[in-house]
Design a protein that fits this description.
Blueprint: H1 6-16, E1 24-40, E2 43-61, E3 64-70, H2 75-90, H3 116-120, H4 123-137, E4 144-163, E5 168-186, E6 189-192, E7 195-199, H5 207-219, E8 230-236, H6 238-251, H7 254-258, E9 279-281, E10 304-308, E11 311-312, H8 319-325, E12 333-334, E13 342-343, E14 348-350, H9 357-362, E15 366-374, H10 376-379, E16 386-397, E17 400-413, H11 414-419, E18 421-424, E19 429-430, E20 436-437, E21 440-448, E22 456-457
Parallel strand pairs: 8-15
Antiparallel strand pairs: 1-2, 1-4, 2-3, 4-5, 5-6, 5-7, 8-21, 9-10, 9-14, 10-11, 12-13, 15-16, 15-22, 16-17, 17-21, 18-21, 19-20
Helix pairs in contact: 4-5
Length: about 450
């Protein structure tokens, strides 16, 4: 049952209660508020704050599905939106797998994603955080005198999802973040860094660490060159390791599998990765800022094993892909209130190894510590698994971090990268995005000196 805002509950129920015989209705309603502050040179560059309301209505009858959404919670607008969804349903093609989520008896793990501290922080406090972060960033190293952008962001919202079969859930959350992108200059060269921290409490943002991390990422790339092509062991720190894992997780969605667009289809129970690698999708992990109680269709979130000791355990499903595959939903529906549910990982968590980052470096004779990827969207084929992306980083020689390098290309396949994982670090951390990540060491990867003209991820 819902324990949510009475107005949202009443609005959603009023539409669902109008379902006629043979008709299924799903209503998602929500409201949210967000703020973004950007500063430059000790002054506010931009300040934006917005509140939005919205609703999405899905109607299913005789296998046909209709959907409509609106940007208002006015009762008359919602009634019109329901009428539009019904009209769309009449003209849709029938699909036997269309249907609402069915209650499955899984009890939710209680989460508290709300933040009174975020809601209570005034505008002066938000500006102050951004200005303080910029001050810290430009005061660490004389080669960093400015940051391309320094920002504070926050947001909070609440939503209600009601289904005509009795499912009804309410969720609310709030969080904030602070980020900076300093520019390091020396001998006519400019390099950029980037770092961010996120929390449910503005006072918990570690501005000193964000500034120090961002500056280090910028200055250590000064003097970077393009190395000759070679094969090297690559070392991915936690934030890049989880980026790689998330690409694989996208290939493990029921949507990709049922459409024949996953290289891992029909491989459940097989070894698809190094036995050292384990990662799961587990939004019940309360330690994470991304923890949640329910998925986008109102089913209780749960842990879903994806790859355990290198063996593929299964795929992620919402209600539709579960029916189409002859399996149950894994409560992996993700959505906004104005969009249909789709399949996606909610909170990826890697299982750590034992050695620290420094020990991982010391164990690599000839390698590359990758500090950023570029061109992930165009350089990764989610159907074949082909992987060819730009990167910056530091060479590793004889167990020591060495010279900076830029605009190199790392080429392989995701399947090969998974199998060649040589070590998983013990440096587990919760990333600002909520994932649980640790470093990865991957052997024998092709590193070439061809440049990428794509924008980097992170640095």
């Amino acid at each position: 049952m819902s324990g949510g805002d009475a107005d949202l509950v009443a609005l959603a129920r009023s539409l669902v209660d109008s379902a006629t015989a043979g008709e299924q209705i799903e209503v998602a309603v929500g409201r949210s508020t967000s703020t973004s502050v950007k500063v430059f040179g000790g002054e506010v560059e931009s300040f934006t704050s917005a509140s939005t309301d919205g609703a999405g209505v899905r109607v299913i009858r005789d296998g046909r599905q209709g959907f409509a959404h609106c940007g208002s919670l006015e009762p008359d607008v919602l009634v019109e939106t329901l009428a539009e969804a019904r009209d769309n349903c009449r003209f849709a093609e029938p699909d036997e797998f269309n249907g609402l989520a069915e209650p499955d008896g899984v009890e939710p793990v209680a989460q508290d994603g709300w933040s009174d501290a975020v809601v209570a922080l005034g505008n002066d406090g938000k500006v102050g955080i951004a200005l303080e972060l910029e001050r810290l960033t430009t005061g660490i190293d004389h080669r960093v005198t400015s940051a391309r952008t320094t920002a504070y962001h926050d947001g909070w919202g609440e939503s209600e999802v009601v289904l005509s079969n009795g499912i009804e859930v309410f969720q609310r959350s709030g969080s904030c973040s602070a980020s900076t992108s300093p520019m390091a200059r020396a001998d006519g060269e400019t390099q950029m860094g980037w770092a961010v921290d996120a929390s449910r409490d503005p006072s918990a943002l570690d501005l000193d660490q964000v500034a120090a991390d961002a500056v280090q990422r910028a200055v250590r790339l000064l003097g970077a060159t393009k190395p000759p092509s070679s094969r090297r062991t690559i070392l991915l720190e936690p934030r890049l390791a989880i980026t790689l894992v998330s690409l694989v997780a996208g290939m493990l969605s029921g949507d990709a599998v049922t459409k024949g667009r996953s290289p891992f289809a029909d491989r459940v129970g097989e070894s698809v990765a190094s036995p050292l690698l384990t990662f799961v999708d587990d939004p019940t992990r309360s330690e994470s800022i991304a923890a949640d109680e329910y998925d986008g269709e109102g089913l209780a979130c749960r842990r879903n094993d994806l790859i355990v000791d290198g063996v593929l355990q299964g795929f992620l499903h919402d209600s539709y892909t579960g029916r189409r595959s002859g399996e149950a939903s894994t409560a992996s529906a993700v959505r906004g209130v104005r969009s249909l549910p789709g399949v996606g990982a909610q909170l990826l968590v890697m299982t750590p190894g034992e050695r620290s980052f420094e020990e991982l470096v010391a164990g690599i004779d000839r390698g590359l510590y990758v500090t950023s990827f570029a061109g992930l969207h165009s350089g990764v084929n989610p159907v074949s698994g082909d992987f060819s992306v730009g990167a910056d980083g530091l060479l590793i020689d004889g167990g020591q971090l060495g010279a900076p390098v830029r605009e190199v290309t790392i080429a392989s396949t995701l399947q090969r990268l998974l199998l060649d994982v040589a070590e998983v670090g013990g440096d587990f951390e919760w990333t600002p995005g909520g994932s649980g990540a640790c470093s990865l060491v991957i052997d024998d990867v092709a590193v070439s000196d061809s440049a990428s003209d794509l924008a980097p991820l992170g640095d």
